[in-house]
Amino acid sequence: MLKCLILFSLLLILLAACGAQPRPTLTATPEPINTPAPTPAPSPMGVGAGFRFSTYGPGYDPGPEYWASVGERMAAKFSAAKPRAIWIVGNYAGAGPLLTFPGSHQNLNIHFSLKDKNEEALTLFDQRGVQVWLQVEPGDVPVEELIDVILDRYQHHASVIGIGVDVEWFHSDGTPEGRAVTDAEAASWVHAARAHQPHYRVFLKHWEAEKMPPTYRDGLVFIDDSQQFENLDQMVDEFAAWARTFAPAPVGFQYGYPDDKKWWGELADPAGEIGRALLGRVPNTEGLYWVDFTVLETFPPAD
Fold it and tell me: Rounded CA gap, 285 and 272, in Å?
């Protein structure tokens, strides 16, 4: 009888074990990854084509009439393009730029010239319909201060469409590398420009996409000035990759460097052929600029 009771008890234990439900495994719910969404890209202005001007680029300065004609001749190479220029008004000079006009500022790293080297050209551009970006190579000076100084002097010109920042010389160590721009910095610069005119934009220029703000896009144009290509195809491939990185935001390209002349010098119309190749591959192109290091030979002055 006792054996029967023991066997019966063991049978009940086995049956209970077979019907037991497994304990649920507790897993932690992963934290959501907060990836900031890019700000909206600005609506396009249409394609502009022209040149970059600096006081150090061309062998000599033929004067405002020449520069206006280069803008017009370059724009005429592309359907419906507007004459447009990158006009450098602040050259890198260490901790701060040397501005190409007279003035004064409490920030002693902002240096001024004795003579205004821009007013005559900008006045002519107003009359001829040449749109102008005013570019600065900022050094360590807060870019907002430079925007205010430059636009306080030149915002009365209808030709001015915004400010350009050459990131190669932004907190530079003396080499054209620069420090990457943050989203907060880019937004602050756009705000500073729009405080002068609400339609103003800011372009950022470099050849490395990593130096651009990661997500901020509103009011910005991204210009690539890379050089030392083996041929036209390599240039177009690299510039197209740049454009895809920032699409649908507008982009621009600065080309015609001496180091690339070994191949563009063989083209019948280098400024036009390069530009048309880019427009064919890069739908968000908004600016095509021939650099002033070789502008005098590509667009010879009239006799």
Answer: 14
Cβ atoms 130, 180 nearer than 8 A: no
Residue 53 belongs to what domain range?
Answer: 48-298
In percent, the amount of the chain with pLDDT more than 70 equals 85
Residue 64 lies in a domain: yes
The pLDDT value given to residue 22: 40
Tens of pLDDT, residue by residue over 57-104, are: 999 999 999 999 999 999 999 999 999 999 999 999 999 999 999 999
Q: Which residues contact 85 (CB under 8 A, 6 or more apart)?
A: 50, 51, 52, 53, 67, 71, 125, 130, 131, 132, 133, 289
Q: Spell out a b/e string for 20-30, using b for 16 or more CB atoms within 10 Å of the CB, else e.
A: eeeeeeeeeee
- Asked if the structure places residue 29 within a domain, the reply is no
Which pLDDT tens digit goes with each residue over 259-280?
999 999 999 999 999 999 999 9
| CATH code for the domain in which residue 136 is found | 3.20.20
Tell me how many domains the chain contains.
Answer: 1
pLDDT given at position 11 = 42
As to burial, measured by CB atoms within 10 angstroms (0-12 exposed, 13-18 middle, 19+ buried), residue 99 is: buried
Q: What is the CA radius of gyration of the chain?
A: 29
Query: According to the model, what pLDDT value does residue 41 have?
Result: 57
CA proximity to 132, closest of 223, 226, 253, 51 = 51
Residue 141 forms part of a structural domain: yes
Q: Is residue 216 part of a domain?
A: yes
In sequence order, what E strands does 33-182 have? 48-53, 82-92, 97-99, 131-136, 160-166
Give the residue among 111, 115, 100, 102 at the shortest CA–CA distance from 53: 100
Query: Would you say 134 and 163 are in contact if contact means Cβ atoms under 8 Å apart?
Result: yes
